[in-house]
Amino acid sequence: MVAGAAVSPAPASAHATLSSSNPADGSRVETAPTEVRLVFDEAVRVGGGATAVISSTGGRADAGPARQIDGTTLVIPLRAGLPRAAYTATWRVVSADSHVVTGSISFGVGQDAVGAPGGAPADKASSLTLADDVAQGVLYAGVVGGVGVPLVAVALWGWALRRRVVRATVIVGGLAMLAATVVQFLMAGPRTLNVGWDQVLTRDSLRAGWEGDGGQLAWRLVFMVAATVGATLILRVGGQPRWPTVLTGAAGLAAAGVIAHDGHAGVGSDAWLATTVAAVHISAMTLWLGGLALLIAVVLRTEHTDGLRRWSLLGFGCVAVLILTGEYQSFRQITPVEGLWDTRYGVTLLIKLLLVATMLALAVAGRRGWRRRAAPTLDSGRLRRTVPIEAALGVAVLVATSFLVAEPPARTTFGPPFTTVAALDGSRSVRIQTDTTRRGPAQVTITARNRDGESLAVSSIAARLSSTDSDIASLPLRLREDPTTGSWRSTYAVIPEPGRWTVTVTVNFTEADAVVTSAAFRVW
What we know:
This protein is an alpha+beta fold. About 45% of the residues lie in helices and about 25% in strands.
């Protein structure tokens, strides 16, 4: 077993992770503890029944619900005088960015921590999480229709506000973003408490939702109501109404700030700057897609193409802002750069970037030749061909953005498997494998092999980890032989810190034949 700060097993769909626990994962203690202390690297919140400690006999060992000492520390009280047995502590909490974190640790009282039942608690609210993700996509679409469309219409094509399709788009968009916010509030409580649809409207769920995300969602709802009122006044007045436009724009920007703070931007270092940048990113996306919606629904169906040049400048500005703010967000969330293609977050971001790049290429093609021509109407036919494709890609961008918000950032998940072969002597070697290079739990597999790569029988294998980066001289690995493969696998191995690590392996073929080798690898 690796001593030191224990880290939980990799959580499912998690953003916050467990940084330490007492007792440590996989540890053996001779005196029964009175509590299990869990420390996370980011703020979390816990609902009733979200933690449990179960013995290897199947009985409950916790003495009540967990209490939260501060934003990052949970304490699960234990029954007095726990008997000799193995125990598993499980948790299901919600991280600061509203995503569910599940996991477990095991320890033994008077015996090894082997054979404890359990694991992460079952997710009874998975369908509610799906509904929350769908609501996020509806929210983005609603902001585009309810805020982006009226603002672009006021700026470029005031006459379009009298068209029925535009009025319907603005009204439906406003209702969509309000409905999505209400749905996300109703989902917040049950997800925290890990209950199903039948508990959505109960007092406990509503209270848990309000105590968790309720404050921010309430502010978002206030700003969206203000934006919807402003957009409604724009429709009523028509033309270029000053104050309704200011109200819609200011309230929409404030709502974008709350949306940004609820997601990845609101967690980690420089959260205020990241939230501001993300809010500007959402606002630029809103105006760009709102303008495309106006073009395809109304403008290109008429001869009113007098605002196309101004739209070209506005669209170019929005794209420039999207690129700059997107670069900052990518830099903040993707570390190292390999996370772009080695994590689901990175791959989703690449798909979004590809969609945006294609939209930009179509926009350039549709507006090509304007500098050489005096009449912008000459290009309206080209726009009629390219803008519908741009709009369809814009919908795909909204879908990709919704998936991106639901994924853990690459900086919290990157840690690809590692495999290397280290020579023992001229004819023998060991293959060393780790299932992850992410800080925390890792399974290390060591296999002695001959010149042909076939496994060799050995009497024992010992291994230890060390890191000059973390000033750790030796962390022993506890290895068990797998008789079916001849490999030796670690149990409860934990790599507590990122940086450069070295695994030193001693292979005992016989009492008189022992060979030592080592290999270095990077932990993230």
